[in-house]
Design goal:
Layout lengths: L7 E4 L2 E4 L22 E3 L21 H17 L12 H5 L12 H10 L32 E6 L8 H8 L4 E7 L1 H4 L5 E2 L9 E11 L4 E5 L11 E5 L8 E8 L6 E6 L2 E5 L7 E6 L13 E9 L12 E4 L1 E6 L2 E6 L7 E11 L5 E3 L14 E6 L1 H5 L7 E5 L8 E7 L3 E9 L4 E10 L2 E7 L8 E9 L2 E9 L2
Parallel strand pairs: 6-9, 12-20
Antiparallel strand pairs: 1-2, 3-7, 4-10, 5-7, 5-10, 7-8, 8-9, 11-13, 13-17, 14-15, 14-18, 16-17, 18-19, 18-20, 21-22, 22-25, 23-24, 23-26, 26-27
């Protein structure tokens, strides 16, 4: 028989309630009469997507208080970060082992656990696996635990400690799954399906904390996730009547997950740039990593990247207004990282530094240099940008390979490209779409040292959209983006 034991322990032969460990939470506003609640909700299927983490097994340990609060964190992250259908799994053992003011496997209070998840947080399950044992030392977590921590931003009581109304619980569920208390009787252990309710009578065996993931007015029931493994009930879930005779809904809590920090970001490549005033540079790439988040395919929702340049030796994290910033576009996934790309165009010749900066869901900017770690920004690790005036370039042969799109970008009509060769070399200039497919070859073969111009007559070849011109010369490859207008 599983242990419920969320709030109660044996005291002189009777069940005794733990004293409330109240946090400074403002009471929720009572839903007004104008609030229209849907007739059903199930966070396992919202818009065809699941926002509820997998069913776990607390074993022979009264740790339901840990499982439910961690489940609230997991669902809160899936909802806030836009990560449905991803079984986020964070450590309950951390809460059992690391000094929360509870009684471990003998029961505990969600308020203490929620405060811990807000103030300290917990790492991924694989970092600190559950052992159903409150004697496991806190130091047993993996060495990388600090980089995996997820926290709550806030939590609150729903309708006070006791007596939450059906409508107040429904209103709280609109933001995500919630934790509630219920009394457990003998007949609950044998539940295998349907809408459960307890025939009045008998003495509760204890109290149990569970996760409400939805409701259904047609069946007059709540939809609830348990922590007794997925062989129990309806694949680990159960339905319980609005009027269940189980004190269902007391001590209800709702939470908001905190936005996770950016783990690290960098200026990936190139290390140096050379361009002419008023001409877009070659593409500059940057990468960043957010634990769990950027490992999922495609662009990460809420993530913003910008490429910037500023005075040589300056620190944009100290004075970002001294720098010029250009929005960067998502490029592709590189392992567990997201990669971005952008160009810079500078109006004044000189020497500059350049770097990337990143922000996640409106969080503080993280300024990223070349070393690709989270040790902060250093001007020594910035990219080096050299901008030359057009007149200076024309005074003699190019001193290095250059490639530019001349004129305005976006482009209307023919696109005009100009490249400079410091020596005679084999050249190939081609046009590609965003998938990498070659559309045209504009130049191919040996070219003399000096400056060369080539036009791309795109009419009849390409429709309006984004394209890339690639120059291969002297063992290097330079790419320039261009946008064709209709």
């Amino acid at each position: 028989m599983k242990r419920a034991g969320a709030f109660f322990f044996v005291c002189a032969g009777v069940l005794c309630l733990f004293p409330v460990v109240a946090d400074a939470q403002a009471p929720p506003a009572t839903p007004g009469a104008e609030l229209v609640l849907p007739t059903s909700l199930d966070w396992r299927n919202v818009g065809g997507h699941n926002y509820v983490s997998g069913v776990r097994d607390q074993g022979q340990c009264g740790s339901d208080w840990a499982f439910v609060t961690v489940s609230m964190l997991e669902s809160g992250l899936m909802i806030r970060l836009g990560l449905p259908d991803v079984d986020l799994d964070y450590s309950e053992q951390r809460l059992l082992s690391c000094g929360i003011a509870n009684s471990g496997c003998n029961g505990g209070q969600p308020s203490s656990a929620l405060n811990y998840l807000r103030d300290t947080g917990t790492p991924r399950e694989m970092c600190f696996p559950y052992q159903a044992n409150d004697q496991v030392p806190c130091a047993a977590a993996c060495a990388d635990a600090a980089n995996q921590i997820r926290r709550l931003q806030s939590w609150r009581w729903v309708g006070g400690y006791t007596g939450a109304s059906i409508d107040s619980l429904k209103a709280a569920l609109a933001s995500g799954p919630i934790g509630v208390l219920m009394d457990v009787y003998d007949d609950f252990y044998s539940y295998s399906g349907g809408v459960y309710w307890h025939v009045p009578g008998g003495i509760p065996l204890g109290s149990h904390y569970v996760l409400v993931v939805g409701y259904d007015d047609a069946q007059q029931c709540w939809i609830v996730k348990n922590s007794w493994d997925d062989w129990w009930g309806e694949q680990g879930f159960f339905r319980i009547a609005y009027v269940s005779n189980c004190r269902f809904g007391d001590w209800a809590t709702s939470c908001t997950a905190a936005i996770p920090p950016i783990g690290w970001g960098n200026l990936q490549w190139p290390y140096t740039l050379n361009t002419t005033i008023g001409v877009a540079s070659e593409l500059v790439f940057g990468q960043l990593w957010i634990d769990v988040v950027t490992s999922h395919p495609g662009a990460t929702a809420g993530l913003v990247a910008e490429l910037g340049y500023g005075p040589d030796g300056s620190d944009p994290s100290v004075n970002p207004a001294a720098w010029q910033w250009t929005p960067a576009a998502y490029n592709l996934d590189v392992g567990a990282n997201d990669e971005f790309m952008a160009t810079v165009t500078v109006a004044t010749p000189g020497e500059y530094d350049y770097c990337y900066r990143y922000s996640y869901f409106g969080g503080p900017w993280v300024y990223a240099d070349l070393d690709g770690t989270n040790n902060g920004y250093s001007p020594i690790q910035a990219g080096t940008l050299t901008v030359t005036s057009a007149s200076a370039v024309e005074e003699g042969l190019p001193t290095q390979l250059s490639f530019a799109l001349q004129g305005a970008n976006p482009v209307t009509g023919p696109a005009r490209f100009r490249f400079g060769l410091p020596k005679r070399t084999a050249v190939e200039l081609s046009i590609h779409d965003v998938t990498g497919r070659r559309l045209a070859t504009l130049a191919s073969g040996e070219c003399d040292a000096g400056y060369h111009t080539v036009n791309w007559e795109s009419e009849g070849t390409a429709r309006a959209g984004v394209y890339f011109a690639r120059l291969h010369a002297d063992g290097r490859s330079l790419t320039r983006p261009l946008t064709l207008l209709p």
